[in-house]
Amino acid sequence: MSFSNLVRSVVRAASDNYTHGRDGYKICKFTPHHMSGVLTGEQCAALFQRSSRDASANYCIGVDGGIVGCVDEEYRSWCSSSRSNDCQAITVEVSNSSYGGNWPISDASWNALVALAVDVCRRHNFRLVYDGTPNGSLTRHNMFSNTDCPGPYLQSRFQELCNVVNSQLDGGVAPTPIPAPSVGRNVGDVVTINGIFTSSNSNVQLHPARNSGRITKIIPGALNPYLLDNGDLGWIRESCIIGASSSSQSSGRKSNEQIAAEVWAGKWGVGEDRKNRLKAAGYDPNIIQNLVNKGVGKNGTVTPSKSTQSKSAIDVAREIWTKGNWGTGDERRRKVEAAGYNYSEVQRYVNEFASGKRK
Ligand SMILES: [Zn+2]
């Protein structure tokens, strides 16, 4: 059973949400859907883990561009309201970047979709043909049923998808990195990671984790360009990086006093999370804490007050999971920390909701 090497994690659908095998059909089609929601690939895949959902996709691409394997390619997903299409297609659920309107998707999701399509076409030896009918190899859900899927925005880019993917298959264009970094990455930057850490020469899963660390070395390559200083983390995929902040202005490190001011401004979280992040960024948490205790860096900034919190971290996680409040990625981290919560703790609860451990 297999998935593309581009996946950052595998969250397999419940076995009663897809068909084992493909009834003798070969894989020769590609069908992108939209989620009608803003989710990570893992969150979408978790929906297909619910038994009797009667729906699935081979892959889910999150708003952060992370690709998650759900239904092994050898199997037919239940995705496009068409048995014959799904028997022949690799189906992909793509997150939207905001709700409603023309249901846009992020650049990171688009780049991941292109990269996945190129990889699928290469391995299964076909090209994308889009003629607006089910006869083409690039097909849409709304060819088979009365649905908006894949949404106006993504549908408007189907011909472009065809062109970009085929030209990459022809070797005419450099492969699209997945996803495009949203911020410049430099040695000394602190990055936040959500996903699977991979060893340097394979896609072996070491452990699913969320952590952060300081970049100690940048190695060219789309998949595993950074080596972090957290020892056991090793190499990581670009697509696992959900946030980054520069801890060094050009070559200069920030002073301990500057960092203390950032602590007051809520940029480094609280408790153990703060200690770990400071350590990972090369600062001594004890020195920083002493400065903070003395009030260094406090001028003009207000630290979030615990007593103003009306909700628990679980409540916040529930809002994230059920309502989509608090944004995603970097934005979520900023908002959650600005409100005085421990981001790692909140995110751990979100992951528990996503995995069904917590209802
Ligand atoms: Zn669909």
Could you please describe the fold and organization of this structure?
The chain is an alpha+beta fold and 359 residues long. Helix content is 31%, strand content 17%. A hairpin with a 6-residue loop joins strand 8 (190-198) and strand 9. The longest helix is centred in the first third of the chain and has 18 residues, at 107-124. Zinc ion (ZN) is lined by residues 33, 141, 149.
Low-confidence stretches: 175-184, 194-210, 219-237, 247-252, 300-308
Give the count of structural domains.
4
- Mind describing the biggest β-sheet? 5 strands, mixed
Helix and strand content put the structural class at alpha+beta
Supply the number of helical segments: 11
Strand order of the largest sheet: 1-5-4-7-3
CA-based gyration radius: 22 Å
Cα shape: elongated
The molecules bound to the chains, other than polymers, are: zinc ion
